[in-house]
Amino acid sequence: MGKNEEAIALMKEGKIEEAFQTLNDAIKENPDDPVPFINFGNLLAHMHENEKALNFYQKAVELDPYAGSAYYGAGNVYYNSEKYSEALTMYQQAHRTGLDDASLHYMMGLSYYQSGRLPHALASFKRALELDDTDTEARFYYGLCLARLEQTNEAQAALMRVVKENPNHADAYYNLGVIATFENSYEEALDFFHRAVEIQPDHILAVHAKKQVEERMKQEDE
After folding, report:
1. Regions of the chain where pLDDT drops below 50
2. Repeats (TPR): which ranges (predicted)?
């Protein structure tokens, strides 16, 4: 096992200091290898040492401009700091280097979504699902984009599959309830909101929506 693989194993075991030392040794032994710099950045990002992490990712791309994992790691740092434009730039650069996996497109989709660029987000989530059809969270956001773009039938189908794959997905039930409400299917909406609150009692949006639908149904019965 090489030092990079050893460091990754140590990280997984939670042996952070040992992982740092192993990566330090790897860099000293081969200072022109971008991989230990990327892994060092990943470890620092995990420790929320964001600026230091970005410095290591920068060093990695200086050594290899096509080090897609470095751009991806930097994108994650920016995304977690809610700097969505910067995150998207990094993800796009990672894609240009040839990185083309489901997780990259999912994170690009999230960055577009958080930036309000829904058609782009929809395309990214669609691509993520093409690469990994089992990604339930990508499917959830795909459905969310469809709903916000008023493609309600497609959104409902996507979200129904989400709750089939994950019966405890409170947000999916809540959004199914919203769609049902707009279609004036109040009993169905109430069932969805009830399920969301049952799963997550502190789901404020679902609690509020449930009360609103109950009041509306009560008024219609009077």
Report:
1. none
2. 34-67, 68-101, 102-135, 170-203
Domains along the chain with CATH numbers? 1-99 (1.25.40.10), 167-222 (1.25.40.10)
pLDDT digits (tens, 9 = 90+) for 160-173: 999 999 999 999 99
User: Can you give the three-state secondary structure of the chain, one letter per residue?
Assistant: CCHHHHHHHHHHCCCHHHHHHHHHHHHHHCCCCHHHHHHHHHHHHHCCCHHHHHHHHHHHHHHCCCCHHHHHHHHHHHHHCCCHHHHHHHHHHHHHCCCCCHHHHHHHHHHHHHCCCHHHHHHHHHHHHHHCCCCHHHHHHHHHHHHHCCCHHHHHHHHHHHHHHCCCCHHHHHHHHHHHHHCCCHHHHHHHHHHHHHHCCCCHHHHHHHHHHHHHHHHHHC
Q: pTM score > 0.85 for this model? A: yes
